[in-house]
């Protein structure tokens, strides 16, 4: 299957008191079922781009793998929506943490799985990375400039990994978690250390997104939107600097402000 994040769709548009025939650009929604060591593990509803990165990042964030060397083989059959992964180790599929489930494009996973597994995999940031205030504004502007698919569809989340100056990689997906997993997978595949990197995100910083950032290992997360109260509490606990409402030459720092300098 050709990787396409969006496609054309015929619609009827109502505008200025009239109906018009119109071709709109619609975000593609694609289910990808993962089989780990020959057993069904999860189905991720995603945008069908950078799927190998998505798989690597997802498995790493769930604690199934720690590094690329834990993968023996990975075979993508994107024409049918399957990915077969063979690990260099066995995992206990009977463990409730690894029960078969659907990862939707909107909310990620159930609260039960989230609190049991994610809390165990969350990492306290030890980075001493600092970022200049002007670079925060500039990086968010860069993310907005690169978000061409969002401008066309209005239905995608965008994220990037940066060293505080330039982007390493930018990814888009209908699922906010998926966009971050693709970044994580890219760094795993390319053996890029991410302890001293900055995560730039287009969406709201929820508790799930904050924990996803901690799993990836970044110490600074930047967003054009707002955090939740639980995300702020977790950011304090996990030593992560959360910056939100990056708009119009201003932003708010919600936790560990010492990493943001003039």
TrEMBL record:
Under the heading InterPro entries, the entry gives: Cytidine_deaminase-like (IPR016193), FdhD (IPR003786)
Where is this gene product found? Cytoplasm
Offer a single GO CC term for the protein: cytoplasm
Q: Please provide, alphabetically and separated by semicolons, the GO molecular function terms listed in this UniProt record.
A: sulfur carrier activity; sulfurtransferase activity
Recorded hits in Pfam families, A to Z, give: FdhD-NarQ
Give yes or no: UniProt keyword Cytoplasm.
yes
Biological process GO terms, please? Mo-molybdopterin cofactor biosynthetic process
SUPFAM superfamilies, per the entry: Cytidine deaminase-like
Q: Which domain of life is it from?
A: Bacteria
Which of UniProt's keywords are assigned here? Cytoplasm, Molybdenum cofactor biosynthesis, Transferase
Task: Extract the signal peptide range.
Answer: none
| Matching NCBIfam families | fdhD_narQ
Q: Which family does it belong to?
A: Belongs to the FdhD family.
Q: Per its database record, what is this protein's job?
A: Required for formate dehydrogenase (FDH) activity. Acts as a sulfur carrier protein that transfers sulfur from IscS to the molybdenum cofactor prior to its insertion into FDH.
Protein name (record) = Sulfur carrier protein FdhD
Native species: Macrococcus lamae
Gene from which this protein is expressed: fdhD
């Amino acid at each position: 299957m050709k990787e396409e994040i969006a496609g054309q769709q015929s619609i009827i548009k109502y505008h200025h008191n009239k109906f018009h025939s119109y071709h709109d650009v619609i975000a593609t929604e694609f289910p990808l079922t993962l089989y780990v060591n020959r057993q069904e593990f999860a189905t991720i509803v995603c945008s069908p781009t950078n799927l190998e990165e998505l798989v690597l990042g997802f498995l790493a964030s769930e604690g199934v793998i720690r590094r690329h060397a834990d993968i023996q083989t990975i075979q993508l059959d994107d024409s049918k929506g399957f990915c077969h992964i063979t690990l260099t180790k066995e995992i206990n599929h009977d463990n409730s943490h690894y029960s078969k489930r659907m990862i939707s494009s909107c909310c990620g996973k159930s609260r039960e799985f989230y609190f049991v597994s994610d809390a165990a995999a969350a990492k306290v940031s030890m980075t001493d990375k600092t970022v200049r205030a002007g670079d925060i504004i500039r990086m968010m502007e860069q993310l907005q400039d690169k978000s061409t698919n969002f401008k066309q569809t209005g239905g995608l989340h965008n994220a990037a990994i940066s060293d505080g100056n330039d982007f390493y990689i930018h990814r888009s997906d209908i699922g906010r978690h998926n966009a971050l997993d693709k970044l994580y997978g890219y760094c795993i595949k390319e053996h890029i250390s991410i302890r001293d990197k900055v995560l730039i995100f287009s969406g709201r910083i929820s508790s799930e997104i904050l924990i996803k950032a901690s799993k990836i290992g970044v110490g600074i997360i930047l967003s054009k939107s707002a955090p939740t109260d639980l995300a702020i509490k977790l950011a304090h606990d996990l030593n992560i600097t959360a910056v939100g409402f990056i708009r119009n030459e201003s932003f708010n720092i919600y936790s560990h402000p010492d990493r943001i300098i003039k």
